[in-house]
Amino acid sequence: MRKLAARMRLLLTGALGRGVRVLAEPGCAHEQDELSIYLTVEQGLRLAGRIAAEPVRAEQEEPPFPIEETRIPPIWISSDP
User: Fold this and answer.
1) Residue 21 in 3-state DSSP?
2) Are 63 and 41 in contact (CB under 8 A)?
3) Exposure pattern of 8-42 as b/e (b: 16+ CB <10 Å)?
4) How many CB atoms within 10 Å of residue 43?
5) Maximum Cα interatomic distance, the chain, rounded to a whole number of Å
6) Neighbours of 49 (CB within 10 A)
7) Is the model more confident about 59 or about 39?
8) What pTM was computed for the model?
9) How far is CA 71 from CA 3, 10, 67, 68, 81, in A?
10) DSSP string covering 60-72
11) Distance from C-alpha of 16 to C-alpha of 34, rounded to nearest angstrom
12) Model confidence pLDDT, tens digit, residues 48-80
């Protein structure tokens, strides 16, 4: 989890600029692993703009794994650190 958090921090810092915080919390038998990403409002808007600018494919490819396993919880953007 820590390596994943470090890689995500590097990726998001490269795309959005300094100040990205990524925290990893390993789960246990009853809880899933969690990866929390903290962005400034400006960074959140920049990320949303980059996502919106991605070209849309005409064909929908089948994912290599079931959709249930790829569900990502909603991202909340706040001005609080």
Assistant:
1) strand
2) no
3) ebeebeeebeeebebebeeeeeeeeeeeebbbbee
4) 20
5) 41
6) 9
7) 39
8) 0.58
9) 21, 23, 7, 6, 25
10) PPPPSS-GGGG--
11) 21
12) 888 888 766 655 566 555 555 445 555 655 555
Q: What is the residue extent of each domain of the chain?
A: 1-52+72-81
Q: Residue 14 is encoded by which pair of tokens?
A: 């490269």
Which residues, 6+ apart, have CB-to-CB distance to 5 below 8 Å? Answer: 22, 23, 24, 35
- The answer to whether the Cα torsion of 80, 3, 45, 15 is positive or negative is positive
Helix axes 41-52, 2-16, angle to 10 degrees: 80
Residue type, 25: E
* Residue 1: CB atoms within 10 Å: 13
Say if residue 46 is exposed, middle or buried (CB neighbours under 10 Å; 0-12, 13-18, 19+): middle
> Which pair of structure tokens corresponds to residue 20?
């990205």
